[in-house]
Write a structure and sequence with these properties.
The complex is a heterodimer of chains A (about 400) and B (about 270). With about 400 residues, chain A is an alpha/beta fold. Helices cover about 35% and strands about 20% of the residues of chain A. In chain A, the strands form three sheets. Chain A has a six-stranded mixed sheet, with helices on both faces. In chain A, strands 10-15-14-11-12-13 form a six-stranded mixed sheet. Chain A has a three-stranded mixed sheet with strand order 3-4-8. In chain A, helix 2 packs across helix 7 (about 130-140) and helix 8 packs across helix 13 (about 325-335). Chain A starts with a strand and ends with a strand. The chains are: A alpha/beta (about 400), B alpha+beta (about 270).
Amino acid sequence: MTTAAGCGNQANLEALKNATTGLRANDFLDVELDTWIGRIDGIEQQVLPDSLKNYQCRNNQLACLALQQDDFQLAVEQAKQRYGADRLGLFLGTSTSGILSTELAYQSELFKSTGRLPDSCHFREQHNSFSVAEFVRKLYQLTGPTQVISTACSSSAKVFASAARYIELGLCDAAIVGGVDSLCLTTLYGFNSLELVAEDVCRPADQNRNGLSVGEGAAFILLEKAEHAGKQRAPVYLRGYGESSDAYHMSSPHPEGRGAYQAMQQALESAAMDAEQIDYVNLHGTATPVNDQMEDKALAQVFSSPVACSSTKGWTGHTLGAAGSVEAVYSALCIQHNFMPQSLNTLTADPAFTQTILTPASMSNCSTSSAHTVVSNSFGFGGNNCCLIFSDQPC
Amino acid sequence: MLSCYIKAIGITAPGIKNWHEAQSIFQHPGTHSIAPIGKKLETLLPANERRRATRVTQLALSAAQQTGDPKQLSQCLQIFSSSNGDLTTFNQISLALAMDGRPVSPTRFHNSVHNAPAGYWSIATQSQTASTSITAYNDSLAAGLLEAAVQLNSADNTQQRDCLLVCYDETPPPAFLSQLTSPLTMKQEFACALTLSQNSDNMLARIDISSGNGMEAITALSDSSLEELRLSNPQASILPVLNTIAQQKQETIILPYFEQGLNVQISYQHKQ
């Protein structure tokens, strides 16, 4: 995993434990927006293999950087040997893929004078939403079922559900799942046009929260059948998932959290769990006024007594299509290291909220801080919702 | 092998307005000619949403709404598959970003997400079921069919819901045209929709889906106009499946799906 908070799981774990944010005042290209961003250092230096050089774009460079962390390449090679390249599925989520390449191509003198895109522009290999999966597929010479799910900010949560079903039905034996989304002009100016971008760092669940910080990130996870877990140290189990639609508005969530509630309820049903068994909720928690409020309302319908929750977007910013997988890995780290992260940058939790937001003050009062079972929420444009449940115990 | 039943078919394509017309065309070779799809399409969208919805969304919804009554469709799982998404909107946003002040429209921004047609559809039908928007570039049609069959057959489909699959792609604006020539030229817009079920009542056909062996050729069409259409849009690779069903033939169609291809065996028997 790679986020603005760090390269690799260990660096992210330390950032979570030490409460050090990865956000910085916007310094992305020539973007003149007064905001904070979760930009990752070193993406531009990543060079893709010669045979895949047409795939060179910020999104695939970020994927390349993340794949080099945490011995993930070794895990892929071992999985290929164990299952065969044709039995290993690949399910990735992204929202904007390598759209930055097209955006920059449109700003070139060549395009402005002739309407032609420069030769360095390769729509299929860079901009198309399938690009990152095609890149990873070719990089590791995988031949199993492959697809990209692109449902905005729930994309790389939904890949877990999709891959789990493919494994259940025997279409593959294991799967690489994950999400990759990288900074681009479309999202920075787009969220700005919707007045959803904070000038300050994002402050999830804060009474004075006023918007999100756009981030970038990549996370890859090897999903295997539970019976193979014995070989792993501190295995984390995908216990359940729920997916729903708001059917309300393209860019605003349902104000009462109708779809968010349904996704969480379905996830609990699929995990055969009661709400009381959940120790911690990793919130979608974008820090926009509307999202955080509706998420709290949805949680109140699911949990009869307040549950401990926090958003980790104070570390990473909103990594959009990567958020589901990034926060799945954060959830796994919480389970493996038995802790709950605070809601970073939250100064005063919104007094209207019903749930236990983990601010430093509330955490010192918290008698229990063990996280055996974690809910991770992801909600996207188009009213697309996904909730995942992870646990240290199999079904 | 994954099995399911096709309950209804929707199609909005050059020279084919709907399944009824498609059946007649497939049954009478030589009667199809490629003619532009009209500007005005039926979408089920309320007027305010319809104004905001772009061409590719209207294209997708026009095929989707042919497959049943909205109330019944609102209960279906929703799978949307597109190779390229909203190319027109990408072009417009990229042009705006190259201007002074970079004036990106908020509506264009939300229209730019790959799941925009799915989002509009859920609003139009008030459908709160799971909605999945995917792409596998030129193999998106087969990937969509596979995802739909998987969702139908998974143990997580506890309510035995039917599944609506919508596959669509628009023609690219000029800047992208040169980029989208191989192996398919994106010459035509195309949308098709299938409602799929585990229940065989009133089925049009049964399909059994399995991975191909990579050795057999992708199924082509003998009618030259329909074959030209098949090669003009990634989603039009559904045409041989529709052709077989229209002629009530039993055969296996090979769809493009990575190295291996996807076998779709078409028959008309109810499950034992």
